[in-house]
């Protein structure tokens, strides 16, 4: 199983980014997916979850700003991040839920 995350970058506060995580080596449509993030000096935290059927949820800290979605035809999960804040700065990781399969992480930096 491989997960390739991309889409991170440097953005000003209030801006938007869309992260993508392309998977291979698994039956993507049968698996729930998650996005995590880890800021410097902090523990990794769960940001968003999307089930195999599309039910999704995001952390309270990003509710109303972040949206998780998936495209089963492309074996890809997305994290749309709007109205970004400096406190959203972190390395973002995708993960197959209920497994130890992680993507390599993509850096998001939000400047004030």
Describe the protein's architecture and organization.
The chain is mainly beta and 112 residues long. Helix content is 0%, strand content 51%. It contains no helices and ten strands. The protein has a six-stranded mixed β-sheet, with no helix packed on it. A hairpin with a 4-residue loop joins strand 7 and strand 8. The model has no long low-confidence stretch (mean pLDDT 97).
Going across the major beta sheet, what is the strand order? 2-10-9-4-5-6
Can you give the helix content as a percent range? under 10%
The secondary-structure element order is EEEEEEEEEE
C-alpha Rg, in Å? Answer: 13 Å
Shape: globular
Largest sheet: 6 strands, mixed
Unreliable sequence segments: none
Output the keywords:
single chain, 112 residues, mainly beta, six-stranded mixed beta sheet, four-stranded antiparallel beta sheet, 51% strand
Detail the topology: elements first, then pairings.
Elements: E1 2-6, E2 9-12, E3 17-24, E4 33-38, E5 45-50, E6 56-58, E7 66-71, E8 76-81, E9 90-96, E10 106-111
Parallel strand pairs: 2-10
Antiparallel strand pairs: 1-3, 3-8, 4-5, 4-9, 5-6, 7-8, 9-10
Can you give me a brief rundown of this structure?
With 112 residues, this protein is mainly β.
């Amino acid at each position: 199983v491989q997960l390739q995350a991309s889409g991170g970058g440097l953005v000003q506060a209030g801006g938007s980014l869309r992260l993508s995580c392309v998977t291979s080596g698994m039956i993507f449509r049968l698996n729930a997916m998650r996005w995590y993030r880890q800021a410097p000096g902090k523990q990794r935290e769960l940001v968003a979850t999307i089930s195999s059927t599309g039910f999704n949820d995001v952390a309270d800290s990003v509710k109303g700003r972040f949206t998780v979605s998936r495209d089963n035809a492309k074996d890809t999960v997305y994290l749309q991040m709007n109205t970004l804040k400096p406190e959203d700065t972190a390395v973002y990781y995708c993960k197959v839920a209920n497994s130890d399969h992680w993507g390599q992480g993509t850096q998001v930096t939000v400047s004030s």
